[in-house]
Amino acid sequence: MTMAITPIIGTLAYILDQESDRVLLIRRDSRPDDDHFGKVNGLGGKVEKDENILCGIEREIVEEAGISITEYALRGVITWTDFGPKREDWLGFIFLVTGWEGTPKSFNDEGSLEWIPKQQFLEACDTDTLTQEKSKLPIWEGDKYFIPMIFDSDPRVF
């Protein structure tokens, strides 16, 4: 007997200011009961039933950062299994955003929004533990495998 997998469809965006080479991240510091509490991450969330992934990421960025994205590219598709408080399976569409209108918020209901140097963010993904610690950016262990591919020059979707 096989079980059907019906994942939650989600989006995750990394907003890159190419002039300053910084990435807009959320520091999940608003709700201590949040599975992500204390971590830094991109912005995004669930795609609604009446949305496609593009409408979903556009809406999520307006809600979470207060900006309208104008230039973005799908960089990858990943899965998260047994994720979140309900231990659900997710299918995540990962975007790199390089253009937007408006000024990002400094915080939202989930935490503080911060511009982090891209190099520091990539150091948090380094295979060397000392380099990771030096970055002082707490990220999910699994994110270290795909984050570098978001910013690399390979145009292929991972």
Characterization of this structure:
This protein has 158 residues and is an alpha+beta fold. The chain has 4 helices and 8 strands, in the order ββββαββββααα. It has helices spanning 53-65, 118-123, 129-135, 143-151, and strands at residues 8-17, 22-27, 40-41, 43-46, 68-83, 88-101, 107-108, 111-117. The longest helix has 13 residues, at 53-65. It starts with 7 loop residues before the first strand and ends in a 7-residue tail after the last helix.
Essential attributes:
22% helix; 158 residues; 4 helices; alpha+beta; 8-stranded mixed β-sheet; single chain; Nucleoside Triphosphate Pyrophosphohydrolase
Summed up, what is this model?
With 158 residues, the chain is an alpha+beta fold.
